[in-house]
Inverse folding.
């Protein structure tokens, strides 16, 4: 009974004391699709991601009711660091949803400004002034935001607090003229229109002492859990090495005491998120070993029963050694394979609508021309018909003028496309709501195939992964010769990520296959998610150079190689591999299916 | 060399705001009888520049907008049938050679491959136009000039200018004008007042940051002029920006909404 009444009271007082207007709340998820574009247009760093901020204890005096209810201790403010732009997960400050939405855009515009000098008050005021000076439309929004904000702010009781509040109000109303906060004042009330006074990880950013950890490919990029916790970066504390720690009854550790322990496993537990939610602070420290380096163990081959079905003994292919500047003949063995457990399957329901749209689009692709006579107009005269027509006219047979020209109307277009998909283990990583990279690639392959089947171009689909030079796994998904049917769809649906990315060998084999196609133009489309790499020396420069050679060979053979990647850092190495115009980076990976097909249309139309 | 002053007084020059020394380059190329290649994004003033220079030099201008059906016959000419006889009809390129004017091929990469065959003898020191169908061979007069343009921004693996063609031209690279120049263009061409022109130029700077990331190509000066004209004619600024700047750039609802948010930072209610 006490529990019940207690919870009622708790709910009641929380609702009564809650300072915001939940009915007018705007969520970050609502504005997120527009946020990146807007932030970039405002001049923000295009490399930043958008994440949700986490509440910070502001320490300012609260309203009486809020104190009774024990809420309003934390506030979500926006800030920006080297990695991302952090925005509140929801804004319900104003009773008007339009204003709450406007506040999001205002914060993005403010955060896009280069950092200004001075303390929190001065730098925000300075940034605000810069925004208002260049953007008159934004200025009217700002004035409405400020006008609606001032009545919501408390007037502090004591003198220094009032002086600080006065300074803040002055800075809000007349941006650009702010003075420093009066010394010794209590923490002022947070200003939701401004950026975070002490962004959680700003201090840690300059602790980088050059030992940049190698970016793990298994990077968990789950945007569902992209909530940012109050992170405190610590230097590893060797005194508290978990291996040597003895349990002492008098020191009871709480969740957020930082102890250096070696965890038994690297997998994330399902309730890790909940535990992080409970903690006041997460400690992040730099350890010498990164997960990526530990992951560099050789993976044992699966038992034959579980592995993909090999076709034949494999083919020996050369590889480029950039140090010796020559092709090493028969250096790797490429094993054509069929995916295991592939049974014929129709197109998944969720892709049906997109597939129908694509089929319509691609049926309209204009094909190649060939000369045709008997046309009503055209660049050339059809002499045979003219002679016959003139003769008939002379002989008195009245004939209406027949079509007398030659033209090149549309005929079958002569195009072959081989799509080579990277199926290495890195495609197992997550892309937030879009699912794993491999799922995105799978959907892309399916839709791409639907589109190409509709426009009638010859095409083949292959996937690859590798395990050292002795086993480059070349997965046959749809051969050029066979029709695109449920059997091929089933094989695409059965693809799984595994192993590494020995791209050169796969490209060479694809070149060979594509050259056998009797088409005028042959496009080699590579879908990838990262740099070429393998367990042996095939990483870094070696892998890149070998791939580059393979691409050059393909180009020399008259093919058109083109790479589509979801790797955001691809700009660093892809120009070297495919040339400046030979690749395309898909920043928003879950749009890969659409991008891939529209790219094909624009590349070949 | 009698052309430059012939028609100078007749019609007012089409407005063109020079960015650098491109007018001098054009004149020098014309004097030396060299063909010119202009590359630059869409709507940055390539076509206007050529029109301006043709008027300035007093030369007739023959503009051909190339498309993927444009063949050599479309440029050179063809036989037509009239009254039981065939009759030869000059194409724009032949007319330009005969008249000693400027032939401007807009978006030349779009044209079919066989057009390069007729361009090559015209663009080296021979300066001749063989007309295969009539057996005629025209020698270009000194005042004839060939100008081609293309947009290197389109990513298209099958349509690029072959090096053997490119290397026959003197090339000028165009880009969107810097803010101060664009301001003048908007005032002169779009009829915008100083304040409006400033806002539009600021908006263009914001939208151009998105080129390559979210938009295939950045907003062009031409679209800005459209917006300025609409606003100057009395349309609400926000509406004008929506129809002239936002909708032409994208079809995706999220992108459109975000672009409108960017517009609102300049023309918000």
């Amino acid at each position: 009974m006490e529990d019940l009444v207690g919870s009622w009271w708790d709910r009641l007082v929380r609702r009564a004391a809650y300072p915001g207007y939940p009915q007018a709340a705007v969520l970050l998820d609502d504005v997120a699709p527009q946020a990146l574009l807007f932030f970039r247009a405002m001049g923000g760093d295009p490399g930043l991601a958008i994440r949700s901020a986490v509440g910070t204890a502001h320490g300012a005096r609260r309203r009486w009711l809020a104190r009774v209810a024990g809420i309003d201790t934390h506030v979500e403010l926006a800030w920006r660091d080297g990695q991302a732009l952090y925005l509140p997960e929801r804004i319900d400050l104003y009773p008007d949803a339009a204003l709450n939405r406007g506040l999001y855009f205002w914060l993005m515009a403010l955060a896009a400004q280069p950092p200004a000098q001075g303390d929190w008050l001065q730098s925000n005021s300075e940034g605000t002034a810069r925004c208002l000076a260049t953007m008159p439309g934004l200025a009217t929004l700002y004035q409405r935001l400020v006008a609606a904000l001032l009545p919501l702010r408390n007037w502090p009781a004591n003198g220094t607090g009032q002086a600080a509040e006065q300074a803040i109000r002055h800075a809000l109303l007349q941006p650009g003229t702010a003075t420093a906060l009066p010394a010794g004042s209590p923490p002022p009330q947070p200003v939701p229109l401004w950026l975070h006074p002490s962004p959680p990880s700003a201090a840690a950013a300059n602790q980088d002492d050059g030992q940049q950890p190698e970016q793990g490919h298994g990077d968990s990029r789950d945007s569902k859990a992209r909530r940012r916790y109050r992170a405190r970066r610590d230097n590893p504390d060797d005194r508290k090495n978990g291996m040597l720690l003895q349990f002492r009854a008098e020191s009871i550790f709480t969740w957020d005491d930082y102890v250096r322990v070696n965890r038994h496993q690297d997998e994330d537990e399902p309730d890790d998120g909940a535990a992080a939610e409970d903690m006041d602070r997460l400690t992040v420290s730099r350890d010498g070993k990164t997960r990526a380096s530990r992951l560099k163990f050789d993976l044992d081959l699966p038992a034959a029963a579980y592995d993909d079905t090999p076709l034949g003994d494999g083919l020996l292919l050369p590889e480029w050694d950039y140090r010796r500047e020559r092709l090493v003949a028969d250096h790797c063995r490429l094993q054509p394979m069929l995916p295991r457990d592939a049974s014929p399957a129709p197109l998944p329901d969720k892709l049906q609508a997109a597939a129908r749209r694509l089929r319509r689009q691609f049926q309209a692709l204009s094909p190649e021309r060939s000369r045709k006579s008997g046309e009503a107009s055209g660049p050339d005269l059809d002499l045979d018909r003219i002679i016959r027509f003139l003769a008939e006219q002379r002989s008195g047979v009245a004939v209406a003028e027949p079509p007398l020209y030659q033209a090149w109307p549309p005929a079958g277009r002569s195009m072959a496309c081989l799509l080579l998909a990277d199926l290495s283990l890195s495609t197992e990583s997550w892309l937030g709501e879009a699912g794993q990279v491999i799922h995105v690639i799978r959907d892309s392959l399916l839709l791409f195939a639907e589109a190409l089947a509709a426009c009638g171009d010859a095409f083949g689909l292959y996937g690859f992964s590798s395990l050292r030079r002795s086993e480059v796994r070349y997965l046959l998904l749809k051969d050029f010769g066979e029709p695109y049917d449920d059997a091929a769809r089933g094989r695409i649906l059965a693809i799984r990520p595994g192993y590494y990315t020995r791209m050169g060998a796969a490209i060479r084999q694809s070149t060979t296959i594509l050259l056998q196609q009797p088409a005028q133009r042959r496009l080699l489309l590579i879908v990838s998610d990262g740099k070429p790499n393998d367990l042996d020396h095939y990483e870094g420069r070696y892998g890149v150079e070998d791939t580059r050679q393979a691409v050059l060979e393909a180009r020399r053979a008259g093919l058109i190689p083109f790479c589509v990647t979801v790797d955001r850092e691809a700009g660093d190495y892809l120009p070297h591999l495919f040339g400046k115009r030979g690749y395309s980076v898909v920043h928003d990976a879950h749009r890969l299916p659409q991008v891939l097909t529209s790219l094909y249309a624009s590349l070949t139309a | 060399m009698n052309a430059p002053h012939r028609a100078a007084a007749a019609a007012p020059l089409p407005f063109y705001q020079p960015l650098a020394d491109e007018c001098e380059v054009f004149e020098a190329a014309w004097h030396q009888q060299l063909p010119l290649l202009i590359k630059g994004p869409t709507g940055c003033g390539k076509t206007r520049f050529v029109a301006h220079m043709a008027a300035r030099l007093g030369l007739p201008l023959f503009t051909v907008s190339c498309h993927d059906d444009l063949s050599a016959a479309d440029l050179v000419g063809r036989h037509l049938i009239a009254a039981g006889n065939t009759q030869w009809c000059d194409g724009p390129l032949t007319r330009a050679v005969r008249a000693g004017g400027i032939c401007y091929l807009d978006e030349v990469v779009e044209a079919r491959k066989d057009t390069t065959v007729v361009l090559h003898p015209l663009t080296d020191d021979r300066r001749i136009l063989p007309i295969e169908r009539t057996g005629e061979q025209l020698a270009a007069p000194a005042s004839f000039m060939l100008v081609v343009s293309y947009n290197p921004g389109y990513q298209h693996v099958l349509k690029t200018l072959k090096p053997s063609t490119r290397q026959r031209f003197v090339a000028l690279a165009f880009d969107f004008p810097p803010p101060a120049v664009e301001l003048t263009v908007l005032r002169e061409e779009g009829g915008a007042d100083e304040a409006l022109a400033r806002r539009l130029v600021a908006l263009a700077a914001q939208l151009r940051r998105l080129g390559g990331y979210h938009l295939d190509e950045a907003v062009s000066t031409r679209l800005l002029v459209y917006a300025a004209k609409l606003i100057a004619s009395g349309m609400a600024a926000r509406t004008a920006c929506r129809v002239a700047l936002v909708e032409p750039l994208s079809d995706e609802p999220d992108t459109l909404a975000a672009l409108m948010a960017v517009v609102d930072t300049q023309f918000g209610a």
